[in-house]
Amino acid sequence: MMDRSRHGGPYDRGAADSWYGRTPVPHYFPNGTYTQPKLTYKEMSKVEIEEYWAGYDDNESQPDMRKEW
Predict the structure, then answer these.
(1) What are phi and psi of 15, to 5 degrees?
(2) Largest alpha-carbon pair distance within the chain?
(3) Per-residue pLDDT of the chain (69 residues; tens, 9 = 90+)
(4) How far apart are the two ends of the chain, measured CA to CA in Å?
(5) Integer Cα distance of 28 and 36 in angstroms
(6) Is the pTM value of this prediction over 0.90?
């Protein structure tokens, strides 16, 4: 398991995509949120992709965990 507390990591980005109601597309920022480079699913390892989906699914499983616009 990777560090799930790191901003910009796969878990964080998955949870954020769920929170904001975005279409889930695995990606992450190894140098911090919105700091380049942005790695896409084509550049991610299996473990990194699994962490993205864990963050997305964990957020989806919690009631009222969506941004209210």
Answers:
(1) -65, -40
(2) 33
(3) 788 999 999 999 999 999 999 999 999 999 999 999 999 999 999 999 999 999 999 999 998 888 988
(4) 33
(5) 10
(6) yes
Beta strands in 11-69 (DSSP E): 27-28, 39-40
Q: How many residues does the chain have?
A: 69
So what's the pLDDT on residue 35? 95
Q: Which residues contact residue 69 at a Cβ distance below 8 angstroms, ignoring those fewer than 6 apart?
A: none
Q: What is the DSSP letter of 54?
A: H
Looking up tokens 């299996």, which residue turns up? 46
- Count H helices and E strands in the chain, helices first: 2, 2
Check: CB of residue 35 under 8 Å from CB of residue 29.
Answer: yes
